Amino acid sequence: MTRKVSGPEIERVIQLLGRLPGLGPRSARKAALALIKRRNDLLVPLSEALADAVAKIVECGTCGNLDTVSPCSICQDSRRDTSLIVVVEEVGDLWALERAGVVNGLYHVLGGHLSPLDGIGPDRLNIARLIERAGSGTVKEIVLALNATVEGQSTAHYLTEQLAPTGIIVSRLAQGVPVGGELDYLDEGTLAAAIKSRRRM
Three-state secondary structure along the chain? Predict the structure, then answer.
């Protein structure tokens, strides 16, 4: 029998933190203790920021990004190339591409990938809105920046079929050797993709 060493308020904080990705029970306890010990300079500002986020953050009605306005600031940016849409699985993928500064077009967040075993079909993803955007007349290319997993590849295949009638160019990210990667440390799948994605110098 495990004895409780703290009150229900602290236990609730630990349980909620434990639901976050990458945080198990032990990590959640450590994080909760750190927050509580630094109540004034960490816990209070964090609780205020979270309350603010709950009140103000919305999902962009155009692309599915998270922002405080809809359409989001990316969709409203007049400097963006509106003829290019980069499709990603999750908002985190969009943020990663933005941090890298490699996309000057617009985005579309699917909200996951197709996974029949988990009951996730096309109707559970933001696909209908993508098809609608593709038919707007301004889009010339759609880049499928999906994860290099079986689910990501099957989702890309499905989207390619759905977008075929639009006549828009549909491309995928090149997959293979990462910058700075040594061949000896790469898995067979990555090496195979690198060979298949080779191009002339």
Answer: CCCCCCCHHHHHHHHHHCCCCCCCHHHHHHHHHHHHHCHHHHHHHHHHHHHHHHHHCEECCCCCCEECCCCCHHHHCCCCEEEEEEEECCHHHHHHHHHHCCCCEEEEECCCCCEHHHCECHHHCCHHHHHHHHCCCCCCEEEECCCCCHHHHHHHHHHHHHHHHHCCEEEECCCCCCCCCCHHHCCHHHHHHHHHCCCCC
- How confident is the model over 133-157, as pLDDT tens digits? 999 999 999 999 998 888 999 999 9
Q: How far is residue 62's CA from residue 72's CA, in Å, rounded to a whole number? A: 8
What span, in angstroms and rounded, lies between the C-alpha atoms of 55 and 176? 42
Write the single-letter amino acid at 93.
D
Domains of the chain: 8-56 (1.10.8.420), 80-172 (3.40.1360.10)
Q: What is the mean pLDDT of residues 6-17?
A: 89
Percent helix / strand / coil, the chain, rounded to 5: 50, 15, 40
